[in-house]
Design brief:
- The complex is a heterodimer.
- By secondary structure, chain A is mainly alpha-helical.
- Chain A contains 15 helices and 9 strands.
- In chain A, 64% of the residues lie in helices and 5% in strands.
- The two termini of chain A are 34 Å apart.
- Chain B is α/β, with parallel strands linked by helices.
- In chain B, helix 4 crosses helix 5 and helix 4 runs parallel beside helix 6.
- Helix content of chain B is 39%, strand content 25%.
- Chain B has a 6-stranded mixed sheet with strand order 6-7-8-3-9-10, sandwiched between helices.
- Chain B is globular.
- Classes of the chains: A mainly alpha, B alpha/beta.
- The interface between A and B is medium-sized, with 30 and 37 residues.
Chain lengths: 523, 256
Amino acid sequence: MTMTEPSASRLEVSGKPPFYRDVTVVKWLVQLATLFTLIFITWFLAREAGDNLRAKGLTSGFEFLGQPAGFNVSEGIDTEPATGGRALWVGMVTTFRLAISGILAATILGILVGLARLSNNWIVNRVGSVFVETIRNIPLIVQIVLLFAVFGSLSRVELDSGPINGWLHVTNKGVSMPRVFIADGFYQWLVFMLIGLVVARFVRKNRIAAQEATGEPSYSGLATLGVLLLFAIVGWFIHPVFGFIGGPLQAISDGIANIPQVAVQVALTALAFFAAALWVKRFRDSRRTPAGMAALTDDDWFRQIFAFVGAAAAAAFLWLVWPGFSDWIVNSSSDLFRVLADKFGDNPEFLDADGVARDRDGAPFGWARPDIVQPGNFANYGDQGLTMSQGFAAVFFGIVFYTAAFIAEIVRGGILAVAKGQSEAAAALGLSRAQALRKVILPQAFRVALPPLGNQYLNLTKNTSLAVAVGLSEVVQIGQTVISQSGKSLSVFVIWMSFYLCCSLTISVIVNFFNVRMKIVER
Amino acid sequence: MTANMSASGMELGRADMIVSDGVDKWYGDFQALKGVTAQVAEREVVVVLGPSGSGKSTWIRCINRLEVHQGGTIAVDGVELTNDTRNIDKIRSDVGMVFQQFNLFPHLTVMDNITLAPRWVRKQPKAEAETKAMELLERVGIPEQAAKFPGQLSGGQQQRVAIARSLAMEPRIMLFDEPTSALDPEMISEVLEVMKDLARGGMTMMVVTHEMGFAREVADRIIFMESGEIVEVGTPEHFFTNPTEDRTKLFLSQIL
């Protein structure tokens, strides 16, 4: 320090303040008090809930997941689930189907309606506006129930019913159409396609470089698609050569099975502490300025300590709370590789449901047309046509229309948010309308629209639970049946909550990934 | 109408690059341009002055079809502006434009801003377009900013990038729509310097501005507009020292 000490006369308070006036101490006390209050309230509520549930004869526990389900499911990947866990999984898959197909369809419809509302064509513009204003002002559950009634009023399934008999049936039992499914040769073919993907990527880079070098369009997208198509066709015929991959995968599976539990525990603990240390190092680097280390605030210290507390908690979980977790990881990884190995070879130990070993020379895909087993009924999934039941169709169209109305407004807002000067500048430079849209307007509109779009995807996924209103067996409906069978309401609630949390977090992570990539650099 | 209103390229012995003949423009029932007739010769620098709302921006925006005129004719380098998209494309490729609000593309780097149109409209190889872009950035004095985004630059730097972006299409005519009006005072001169340099290089320019110093120093002719009409045309010397019209005198007394 080169500065001289300030003169004593100007310094009123020189000593340490009492602790209740010390900002640092007060701040830490408040933090700790909040933390302990939170822990106490949680503990108190959990204890009360536990006591009350025990008094009513309700207990928690997850044994029902492995016990016989005791009921059939009306639709899904497995209509006669063996265990409670399997039943819930059937419901989860139905929810996935609704959410994923719903997100795709709602995005496409929403973009079209949004563009329609921006159209100069009066009729198109009006149709878009009426769609948006009608749909978004009616509660979703009313729309779903209404659609269910509409589908229910359609004609009965007969052997010669449907708009295109044998191909497309729209009836009171839902909609059935042809479908393509994965067959025995698929995994070998997939390996060949992975090689194709690498080649296609190489070709695409090459084409783009050619475009940059000459300035002439080189149709990189078409060339890439052509390569993939070529590999898909060639792979259809030569894929059995990849059957040998089953051997190495089986070896990996055996290798993993031999890893002792302690080794996994040690490795995961080390990983936890390594991650904490890495985080702290990055954090300290981010606080480093050219002039040296910036002074760390109390919050900064708290975060660093918390990183190691988190790692310690993970270690405690691994060694004390649930030592079996490491074993579970070993077993499931080993199982995963064994299942993969079975997909490749005709392993005599792994037979299909009908007792036949997998035929690795078979075609990668198969297809099937709608099949009416008897008048009034479709075959339920299996190798038959793709059947959307009455309930599924009602929920699907309900959430798609509803979300599309909101996405349309987001798309419209995004495009309108791009300043008029941007398209004027593009036009003045001689860019065509299409080039201006692709290179200037849409990249900026997408950046504005992406965060609210992610919100709509979250809403859509959560709204699939309204399927309970029309009795579609998705995760909530099946969960209710499981509760009535086993009485473990608390456990099912936990499963529901963690399921939707995982779905939402996955969507958030994906949307955020694109969001960060689209970010515009400001000073 | 005074005698020097008819001053055109023919008298200077050069061809007319821009011919505006009786151009009318309405916004609803408000007439923004009332029979605007003037010519700009090759390598001539014309400054358009006038109070705000006099129609000067509307006029130069009509010249590359950012606004559609409803009466009269506009011809640029012998091509008449009609609804024919081929004519519009031809004229836009000959005419560069610099805006008051810069209108740089915020999602692209300075380099990509400049090379976008040459690469996708002119189909230039990337390397060639980038070499040209670096030359232009050096000409406007900011080669070191090539990799930055517009949001990281000062207003004056952004406007210089906008000028370089227009020049990359090798236009024969440059239109400037109040290029310094959105800038902080200390950044105006750096943009004006670039424009003076362009004028010295023989570029045909039409400049709407409030910079009287620039008009006096660089302009070959000054066109004074008010209420959508051309009031007076003349050399800077005539305009600033001996204006004939009362409205011009009133305008000059208010700003000088």
